[in-house]
Amino acid sequence: MSNQAMSNQAMSNQAMSNQAMSKQGLFVGLVTLDLVYLVKDLPQYNQKIVALEDSMTAGGPATNAAVTFSYLGDSATLLASVGQHPSRQLVLADLQGVAIADLAPTRTQPISISSILVTQSTGERAIVSRNAVQAQAPATAIPCDILRRREIVLIDGHQMAVGQVIAAQSKAQKIPVVLDGGSWKAGFEEVLPYVDYAICSANFHPPQCGTVAEVFDYLIALKIPHIAITNGSQPIQYFHQGNRGQIAVPPVQPVDTLGAGDIFHGAFCHFILRTHFLEALTQAAVVAGRSCQSFGTRQWMDQ
Question: What are the two backbone dihedrals, phi and then psi, of residue 74, each rounded to the nearest 5 degrees?
Answer without folding.
Answer: -105, 175
